[in-house]
Amino acid sequence: MKPSPFRSTALTAGMAASLSCVLPAHAQSDDPLLDALVKKGILTQQEAEDIRAEVVEPTPEPTQWKVNTALGSLEFFGDARLRYELREGQDDASDTFSRERFRYRLRFGVKGDYRDDFYYGLRLETSSSSRSTNVTFGDDGGAPSNKENDRIHVGQLYLGWRGLDWAGIEVGRVANPLITSSMVWDGDINPEGAVERFRHKFGDVEVFATLGQWLYDDVNPENPFGAGGTRTDAFLLAWQTGAKYQINDTLAARLAPTLYNYTGTGDYGGPFGAGNVTGINDLMIVEVPFELTGRLLDLPVRLFGDFAINLNADDRATAAGFAGSDDQNKAWQIGVGVGQAKKKGGWEARAFWQRSELFALDPNLVDSDYFDSRLNMEGIGIGLSYAITDNIGAHVSYAYADRADDDLPVLGGGDIGGSGFTELNDYQLLQLDLTWKF
Fold first, then answer.
1. Do residues 160 and 169 touch, judged by C-beta distance below 8 A?
2. What percent of the residues of the chain are helix, what percent strand, and what percent coil, each to the nearest 5?
3. Fewer C-beta within 10 Å: the chain N or C terminus?
4. What is the CA radius of gyration of the chain?
5. Residue 11's closest CA among 22, 1, 19, 21?
6. Which residues, 6+ apart, have CB-to-CB distance to 190 below 8 Å?
7. Among residues of the chain, what percentage have pLDDT more than 70?
8. 47 φ, ψ to 5°?
């Protein structure tokens, strides 16, 4: 039977569209249904070929995670780092202490927005130390390549609310929300408690305030049986205000004065002395970090610094047995950074000078790397970063420091000689890092 001469163009087009919807995706070279329609004269051979050409391979559905509605949106993030590290230092007799090791860290988390302006976050990480997420190769005890130290811990766990344009609150184990420096805070410390943030912009000036109430040490029990006396939990309270001024399109300045005070006793309330590197007695610290950012020869440039003073240093020095050294109450940092290592091929160089006097800061919070977690130290730090790809980077860090006041001990819980070592001189640090962010 010949194809009907009365077939309309509209009928053919409609049939072609219908067939293109029902035909399987593999009907590109042969299809029994099309062949049968051609044989019966319903379609011409050319019309069948046109239909075959219109059949498009469907796009596969993307793989999807099924997320409980209580989690809202969900984003995974993290990083992994390999490190070579060398630390060296001398005592007063010029005897050298060396510590060489290969290390790694892993941090992996989820975060997202829920509903009604709530958000959340969870980050898991290696190492149980408050000031380090590193694990040392071969430092497990027992058989070689044992996994005793390769454990995962909760580094951050928080719930936040940002229901107002100018205010928000966050509770849990939070990332440090303060504008600060390694002179005062180690970057790995995630304080536990509550944070309130406030900010408002007036033209080119943005003013802000950040308040922190963090549980420093929980005592157990507060009131024991017998004549043990009553103790109270220790809290660290932070009160930061500041402003950022956008001077022009490329130049901006920021200043963020902060007051720290402590309440309660906890287990850290004892006098700070040569035999006690953890005491938080007689600490009321004012910190003033500042920053000036701009461009020079088309390169990002940053001038940064920090200053801190303990207003109760006279009582702290007396409690430690050094009543005549109450002037050792200040800490300074000043430095410069050039470049930016955020994208492939980018680089950044950074250098600073720092002096941390013995009674100026909380020894439990200061950075654990550049000055070995110690006070009464003075020296320099240098860093160089290069972005191999957008997600993989290399970094070199070097530090050299000596005792700030030779008449006073060097105190802190460092890796050189342990917390009981008080004679550190000629401290050096070298770190080579390879980091992958995901």
1. yes
2. 10, 45, 45
3. N
4. 32
5. 19
6. 155, 156, 173, 174, 175, 176
7. 88
8. -65, -40
**DSSP characters over 365-412:** TS-SSTTTTEESEEEEEEEEEEESSSSEEEEEEEEEEEES-TTS--EE
Cα–Cα distance measured from residue 369 to residue 432, given in angstroms and rounded to the nearest whole number: 13
Q: Tokens 């500041």 — which residue?
A: 242
Strand 234-246 with 252-255, pairing:
antiparallel
Would you state the structure tokens that stand for residue 270, as one six-digit string?
């004892």
Residue with token string 């062949």 = 35
CA distance 235 to 125: 25
In terms of Cα–Cα distance, which of 308, 331, 297, 315 is closest to 240? 308
Measured distance CA(118)–CA(358) in Å, rounded = 42
Geometric angle at alpha carbon 127, from 122 and 131, rounded to 5°: 90
Residue ranges of alpha helices (H) inside 302-341 are 313-319
Chain center to CA of 6: 75
405-432 pLDDT per residue, tens: 999 999 888 899 888 889 999 999 999 9
Amino acid found at 271: P
Q: Token pair 């051979």 is at which residue?
A: 45
Phi and psi based region of residue 371 (left: phi greater than 0; alpha: psi -120 to 50; beta: remaining): alpha
Distances (CA, A) of 409 to 376, 403, 404, 406: 7, 8, 10, 7
Residue 151 contacts residue 129 (beta carbons within 8 Å): no
Q: Global pTM?
A: 0.82
Q: What pLDDT, in 10s, does the model give residues 173-210?
A: 999 999 999 999 999 999 999 999 999 999 999 999 99
Amino acid at 139: D
Tokens of 186: 């180690």
Nearest to 166 by CA among 195, 194, 197: 197
